[in-house]
Request: fold
Amino acid sequence: MNEKSKWPLLILDEPTPTIFLDYDGTLHRGHALVDEDGTVSLDSENTLFEFAPLLVNLLKPYPQVEIVLTTSWLDTFPLEKVISYLPVSLAKRVVGATDDIKVPFGYLQDGSARTYRIRSYVFAHRLKNWLALDDSVYGAFHLSTSVLTLEPHLVLLDAQQGINTAEARNRVKSWLAEVHSSGS
Reply:
């Protein structure tokens, strides 16, 4: 038996459109601060989830799109609490999170941990149609494989603008239209 035949072929065949979603630098400008009472505010003093209505409107015509959370809020709060901050129309789309995926130390050191977790989730769930909206998805080149090139799936956002740029919104719109028109 040769080396190649020992490993099962990985096929990304789950067609459900999935968005990997960060909070800080994506749905609002700034990063979360939690006080001793558990109250969340932003270091930027902007409004929490100021751009969430943009995502709600983008996804409205596409009820089949699911959301997987990648936010670092999961390091502080349980999943249910993290979901509760979202508008109801986004919260009901959440099907999972990436916080339980263990990351090798080297990826923590080089800043590509978030991308590693997303890739691991994609492989574990065999996702074919996915897009990551995040201000910290780095390392796409060295984490890409012969099965999956990551760059086309990652939307690296400016943390000071989040999804509130024409470029980001157009990228999401084109992905949604592409996935919808392919019928898969």
Helices lie at 52-59, 79-84, 88-91, 105-110, 113-125, 140-143, 166-182. The longest strand covers residues 130-134. The domain at 13-182 is CATH 3.40.50 (Rossmann fold). The radius of gyration is 17 Å.
